[in-house]
Specification:
single chain; alpha/beta; 8 helices; 7 strands
């Protein structure tokens, strides 16, 4: 949030599994919607995944993700079919799947979040980037590593081009109890454990 308050336009967020990536980044998207009127897309691997994770999602405290949108700022009722929320200032938020990315070609988003980017088809970003380049919009890529793939490549790009980037492991967040981690370590393949909880980019560890 501090980076975006300073005008950040590109960010790569590599956090461990169950660290609260989408919960945190949704806050940034809502804040940006209030600052600049426009269309904002939250992009998942598939349309149905977006519905399960964010639209219908509930965190471990029992709070729905959509409850982060202040009711007094929402215009009308959320569109269940299109997974779209409009704010009273005119901004619109919509969840889409990268598998349906063609449906938004020709639109003019001001901000886009690519959730679990390491699992997505990287061509989705190729379709969106010219739009954001032209209108000065922003993009956030969040993911836990999945081998040395396009997720790793965009992290290297972030480092070389001065984008905001961050890697957080379970030691950084302490979000998962140590006893749970010990149990996971005993029962998971080592490469999977290091990938999911320590954000290691392991060659050949893309699929398990």
């Amino acid at each position: 949030m501090q980076a975006f308050d300073k005008g950040c336009k590109r960010a790569v967020v590599v956090w461990h599994r169950s660290s609260g990536k989408d919960k945190t980044i949704l806050q940034i998207a809502i804040k940006e919607m209030l600052k600049n009127v426009g269309t904002y897309y939250y992009i998942f691997l598939t349309y149905s995944q977006g519905r399960k994770i964010l639209w219908d999602g509930i965190d471990k405290s029992g709070m729905k993700f959509l409850a982060h949108f202040p009711k007094e700022l929402i215009s009308g009722q959320p569109n269940e079919t299109e997974m779209r929320i409009e704010l009273i200032n005119g901004s619109a938020f919509q969840i889409i799947g990268v598998d349906k990315i063609d449906n938004i070609v020709g639109t003019n988003p001001r901000g886009c979040v690519f959730s679990e980017y390491s699992l997505q088809n990287s061509k989705g970003w190729d379709f969106i980037r010219p739009i954001l380049a032209e209108n000065g919009g922003w993009a956030i890529f969040n993911f836990t590593p999945r081998g040395v793939n396009h997720g790793w490549k965009i992290l290297q790009q972030a480092k070389s081009e001065g984008w905001f980037w961050q890697i957080l492991t379970v030691e950084d967040t302490q979000a998962i109890d140590i006893d749970v981690l010990e149990a996971e370590k005993r029962t998971m393949p080592q490469s999977l454990y290091e990938q999911e909880y320590y954000c290691k980019f392991i060659e050949g560890a893309g699929q398990f």
